[in-house]
Each structure stands twice: as C-alpha cells, then as structure tokens.
C-alpha cells in the first residue's frame, strides 16, 4: 500500500504540447475568443493601451492553459500585441504605420507584405490570416471616410485622417487576393538641406530653383512614380513669399506649405451611385476665381493640364505642377497629349505655343537602382523653334553643376 501511495503522490503532470503559432486557423480562433471575452468587459476599452495589453496577455495565457499548450513568454507577449492591434488599431499594419522609416506599405494578398525603407522594397514578417482578415482591417480604415468596398465597388482610392494615401483593389479584379497600397504621410516634411545632404541636388542647383520660385518662374516637375516629384514640389513651395495667396489642388492633400495664406482644395471621387464627383479640372477653374497669386496643381494627369497652362499664361506666374514622364522632353509630350484630351481643337503648333509660353523650367527627377532620388536634369523652356518647343539644359546630374556655369537668372531673363 505504501508503494502505491508513493506512486500516486509522484504522478507526473501531463506533458504540454507546443502549438504551431504560424497556423492561421489557430490565430484566427485565438483572436476571436479573446476579442469576444474582451467585449464582455466594455469598460476595458476605455483603459490605457498598457492596461489593455496586460489584460489581453492574461486572456491569451488562459486560452493556451485550457488546451494544455506551452507557449514561450515572448510569444505570449507578441500574440497579445497582435490582439491589441486588432482591437484598437489596424491589425498587422499597426506597427508598420507607426514606423517612421517606412514610406510605403504594399499588400499583395494576405501573406505577402512589402515596405519601402530608404527607397528600397523589402519583405516583412507581418502578415494577415486570410483574405477576410485583410478586408476587415481595410474596411476599418475606410469606415470613418464613408467609402464603400465590395464586389460592386472593388476599387477605392482614399486619404486617411493622418494624410496617408490608400489604394485598394479586391477580387474579382485582384486575382490573388486583396491588394493594398499605402503611401504614408511624412509627419516632418523633408527640407532643402536634407536633399542636399542626400546628394539629390547640389547646393548651387537648390539655390537656383529656390530663386526661380521667388522670381515667379512657372515650374513643371517630371518623373516616375515614387521618384520624389511631390517632395521637391513641397520643398520649393516653401520659398513662395509670405504675402502671396496660394491655391493648391490635389487628389490627396500632401503638400505642407509654410505660407500662411494657403487655400487647399482636394478632388472628390464619385459616390457609390456614380454622383458627386469633383474633378481637378473643376477645381483649377474655380481656383482662378479665388484671386490666387499662384496655383499649385499636385499632379497634371488629364484635361486639367490645359486649364493649368492657361492659368500660367494669364498672370498667375510662379505656378507649379508635376507630371509623370521619363524625361523633361517626354514631360512636354505628355502635356501635349493631355491638352488634346481636354478637347482642344487647335493645331499642334498652337498647342506647343501654349506650352512654350506657359513654362519656364522643367525639372526631371528619378530614383536609381539603390533607391536614391536625384534631380537628373533641369531644362529651360526657351520658346518655339520650327514649331517645336525649344529646350536648353541648365543642369545635368552627370556633371553635378550648372551647365557652363551660366548666370542662370540672366539666362532666363534673356530668353523671356
């Protein structure tokens, strides 16, 4: 009897298994159960995030204890943070949105998330459980904006409250699951000094561009997506004299002008019934009735380009815009095409004359294979030659100096 009693006293406890924490179904069940238990305690949602995290960590531990599963402490903490982000944030995107080194977040289906850091794309460990998880988080983002996302409206382009831009495409248009692109809003805008230190521009070139803004030159900035067009436009716009009235027009407000007399206008897409759209062209036309000294169009991409050129030609000197193009010369071709899209029926020569008399400088920027952004050329618009817009190069990145060390200000005055 004593031997039996001894065996009973020393009976080993059942061994605890280690769950597969990469299993999407396990995580989904964990999130669902913990969130349901949290919802029973509504007062918890008014607590500080740190208090919520402690409570969630306790619930996660209970979840695995009930199943006799052993989870390392660091994994418990990570799972608790995941659930907190689900409850009070944007799920797996929350740490990425809070990382100031990340400029873009790209979601290509639930298991494939990439970010851009310092101009280079890289994969991250964060991922979603499934397509439904992506949609749940994205709809939470869009809910305060009143935007609809479903099979009847499978594409959305919107601006988040912090200024970040989000574009979403879902099945059936996106074949491999929901695709989300987020361009994060920089809390602290880059400065001219930062561009110089990053060798995006030379000090001499930056001084020339800044002086061109002060002297009310009409400037077009061209480049590919993500090349830094808006960043450069933002920096140059801060040199507009304080007393001037500036009207900005953007699809998603990004410009951070330091000028105190700025009127910011933003386009509006149509609603779910296809009504209520306010286009960039409408806003440009309306801006001219608002007594602006300058008009800044965030991007010329359609028929609004004609109205912008007309504004530059009718006394609104010092206006600026950007355009997608592969070179300064290609930027002018793009403008010609957009003028035609606006229904302009004049000859090609007249279109070129409108462009030649409207613009003073075309600044082309690019991003190299290492992710570094540069101003690669600055072309002065000198008028027409045989019906073609004549350009004179003032700067080339390969030389990293103003061509022939010209007195650029006199050079422009002579051409005017």
UniProtKB/TrEMBL annotation:
Domain AAA+ ATPase: 215-404
Leader sequence segment: none
InterPro entries the UniProt entry points to: AAA+_ATPase, P-loop_NTPase, T2SS/T4SS_dom, T4SS_GSP_E_ATPase
Matches recorded under Pfam families: T2SSE (PF00437)
Chain residue ranges for the region called Disordered: 1-23
PANTHER family, per the entry: TWITCHING MOTILITY PROTEIN PILT, TYPE II_IV SECRETION SYSTEM ATPASE
Family, similarity comment: Belongs to the GSP E family.
Official protein name in the record: ATPase TadA
Organism of origin: Halomonas halophila
